[in-house]
User: What shape does this take?
Amino acid sequence: MVRVKYITAPQSIKGLDNIFGGWLVRIPFASAPDGEFTALVDTGTAAAAPAFIAALKAEGIKRIDLILISHIHVDHAGALAEVLEAFPGARALCHSGGIRHLVSPERLWESTQKVMSFLAEMYGRPSPVPEEKLTGFSPDSLSSLPKDTLPFEFPEIKAMAVPGHAPHSMFYSLGGYYFIGEAACCTFEWKNRTFFRPATPPRFELPIFLKSIDKLLALPDRPAFAGHNAQSCSSHRLLECSRAQLCRWLELLTPMTEPMPGESESMHLERLLDMLLEKDEELGPIGVWAQNAELDRFFHKNAIIGFVDYIRRSGAASA
Assistant: This one.
């Protein structure tokens, strides 16, 4: 029986404890050490690394075979160096283009500080990852991992590059589940309903994002995990809703990308968010996803900034 559990750790800012972490996947497999293959998809933030590692050990984890990184943003791969040190037998796999940023994370950290503002310190500065611990793999179509990824036979794992949210985003299929990262919208559950928030921070390119979603929609429907949510849902439903929401935002935001006379950029952004909250029923209420209204508005506005920047650069606003 395949076991999947989303492992989280307390964060320094209230309301975010349940949305940063990684998926622990345990698969019975005779060729693996102790007869069980143990994988981890993402590691969460650097600042929470000690608590995250403690949570893994509380699950009885003594060994991790493979760490799969959905993308190298510091809320997904920030704790990678510390997790590899705590579980020295593990290897990590990521998009080939992301390796240099994990080995030398200075530019990644500078970008995080610029985009995430006050939240960057909560995430924590990532430590350099030893290059010999990393394997790069980023095929354009769904492909099995190379047999030499690990020194022993392991269960079938397939991967595919899915740029959109980030140029180094990866999709993984293992144990009958899909791990989509933020190659589609982020999801959250509230009152027995799934809500969606576009994962579109700057620099966002809508055609690339949609192309990745379409590649994923071409795969069979499976239980899928999206970024920051412990609950799985139908991959086709997740991807179809994500695609529809992106198109909806394009339609709603295109006529409103410039501030009104006398309106500051911050006032303009607030107006756009209030409009989307009113007209996009899939976006969900404020203060539920992050369990903190101020932070929810911050994350939503970050997605809007990326979308508005794309529309302005593409010329769609004046077309």
